Amino acid sequence: KIQKKYYKCFLIFLISLGQTLQNIFLPLPPVGTYQRSCEGGAHHRQRRSWVWNQFFVLEEYTGDEPLYVGKLHSDVDKGEGQVKYVLNGQGATSIFTIDENTGDIHATKRLDREEQAYYTLRAQARNRENNLPVEPESEFVIKVQDINDNEPKFLNGPYSARVPEMSPVGTSVVTVVATDADDPTYGNSARVIYSILEGQPYFSVEPKTGVVKTALPNMDREARDQYLLVIQAKDMVGQMGGLSGTTSVMVTLTDVNDNPPHFSRKSYQFSMSESLPVASVVAKIKTLDSDVGPNAEMEYRIVDGDGLGLFRITPDRDTQEGLITLQKGLDFETKSSYTLRVEVSNRNIDLRFLSLGPFSDTATVRLIVENVDEPPVFSLPLSKMLISEAAKVGTTIGTVSAHDPDSTNSPIRYSIDRNTDLERFFNIDATTGVISTAKPLDREVNAIHNVTIFAMESLHPLQVGKCIILITVTDINDNAPVFAIEYETYLCESARPGQVIETISAMDRDEPQSGHRFFFSLTAEAAGNLNFTLRDNKDNTASVLTMRGGFQRHDQTMYRLPVLIMDGGSPALSSTNTLSIRVCDCDPDGAPQSCGSEASMLSAGLSTGALIAILACILTLLVLVLLIVTMRRRKKEPLILDEERDVRENIVRYDDEGGGEEDTEAFDMVALRNLKLVRESGGKTRRDVTPEVPSLFLSSRPPPDNGIFRDFIWDRLKEADVDASAPPYDSLQTYAFEGSGSAAESLSSLDSLSTDSEQNYDYLSDWGPRFKKLADLYGHSDDGNLFAS
């Protein structure tokens, strides 16, 4: 560091000395100005009276005295002190000063070329006495000369890079770039050379370009996957005394598929239960591969063994383990072990590394089947049976069979799952498995019965197998045909003889295998009628025709025609269905307008529009009446109390709610706290309450004084004010206090003996023996004495 400091100071001294000599001995060519001459009116070019050089000043000057920059001089200045020099422009007076007598320019502050490379100033020579310019103002430049005071910097560092493992020597990794703030056009201060300080011998760097490259072949990621490099950039073309900067480069080796997979062992053995369901995982095989990511993805296959169609091996997506899954059911009694030869290989193989060996491996897997107690197995898990709906109770439908697959060969007992046969249509023999009917069957109610049969081992009742039986009920001809729909047949009064007025069809709940075939005819009693006839269309339909014309509603409004329908079953079934035919008044197109005698009466009286209008008026009147009644009921009762109504039977409610102790506007809280104000108020009453209700009992005695009540309340209030346990909020306290007198006096009948009442109770003696006791108490004897008992 000391040598570097002295070297820098010596360099600055040499540059300053050279610059001073340049400013003194190498003036630039003068810049000419033009002056006018009045002789003969011609223009003459004169040489400029004063000149100066383009100045240079060294940056980072650290001397104690101002740095001399240069000197200005004018030919007008004869040395008599008549001319003074003035300096203006960038940094004038703040950075650069001029001696107005001699024209010497000095720099008073340390300059930094990286902040500002040059300064543009203006100089002028003026007359000292009148301050008038003796020369035109001219502009000049002071350039700040560069020194090597900035080290190279890596603006994008630190760096990180990735390069595949096993890359050949010279593979480009990353390019580092250092910048130097010094002047690249002056000297070697900004010429940078790169070198590697740490990371050898694995990597190298190009000195001029900064390209980092691999320096060793066959770098293995599995051995080491990261390298930390330190790159140096030094200016002055790397010579001694140059400044330098460093950066770090973290190089990560990425994986390539250069390692083949291999099994952790050459043979494996696993056990599995014979009761495992299909698609269960029976074994997991661990495979090793030093590579990662897609280069470690595996593929498995079974290349040999006695379980090629029974097992399947696939890779686990997360762990890349080989998963052996079951493809078919196992049976210990049939085969108790299996041997497989499995192979593993990489899914993504890099052809560059095939010379390292085959990228696959094989192993032997032995699978042992463990015996378990299995439930009975039916010979057919799904059976289909047929039974005629005409079958009698107890008819055999079919037989199911199950056996114990274990070596114990336990006897089997059969039963029906009654959840699938709720109405108990079927029975099964517990020993033989014979299924029979328990109730009559009806195909039209339920054509297919889905019944579950259980088979249970006698020695191990918990072992239960099951199968499904589909019992189809075949059809017999047990339902007679009927009309397909409820027909509403209309006959126009203008109908002609032979006119088809209806086409009828039939339906039958039975389903014969050859399809339905219906025959239509009139019953024997209707065959001789003179009004209608029936024609069988031979396509399971029939047409009803008129035999005459001139039908009138006034004569007969409705005709009933019995129709006999017979099916083609064996034996054939038939039913009689009645077709109702109404006589109607029709429009010219044959559409019915009004039918029956009711329509005739309406036509003779009021029209339909008139009836609708009358009904509308009646509804309107009813609505008005309901509104009036409702409004009357909603009328409020008068607020003034009736004189005959007892005021004690009414509750006057006031919805006034105070705002608490802070509310002093709605109520006077002082009056509530100080009962003395109540005493002094003179008994003011509220104007919204009836001030006084007349007493129901007349008394000549004056009302008692209420002072005892006031005193009692006043004492209780003072006790509550000083009670520390009283709640801090408004509360209601109730006291039981009874006065000494009443305005109504005593209501007891005991005092009636001493009253001077003029009421005569002698009539009680005439009311019979039930009132004899009262007559004795209140009645008078013949001598005028009062009886008492």
Number of strands: 45
User: What is the 3D shape?
Assistant: extended
- What is Rg? 65 Å
Give the number of helices: 7
Helix content: 10-25%
Approximately what portion of the residues adopt beta-strand conformation? 25-35%
Low-confidence stretches: 1-7, 23-51, 599-604, 639-649, 674-701, 781-789
**Oligomeric state, counting identical vs distinct chains:** single chain
- Average residue pLDDT: 80
Structural class: mainly beta
Characterize the largest beta sheet: strand count, sense, and whether it forms a barrel.
5 strands, mixed
Amino- and carboxy-terminal Cα gap: 142 Å
Subcellular location: Cell junction, Adherens junction; Cell membrane
GO molecular function: beta-catenin binding; cadherin binding; calcium ion binding
Domain Cadherin: 74-154, 155-263, 264-378, 387-483, 483-594
Signal peptide: 1-22
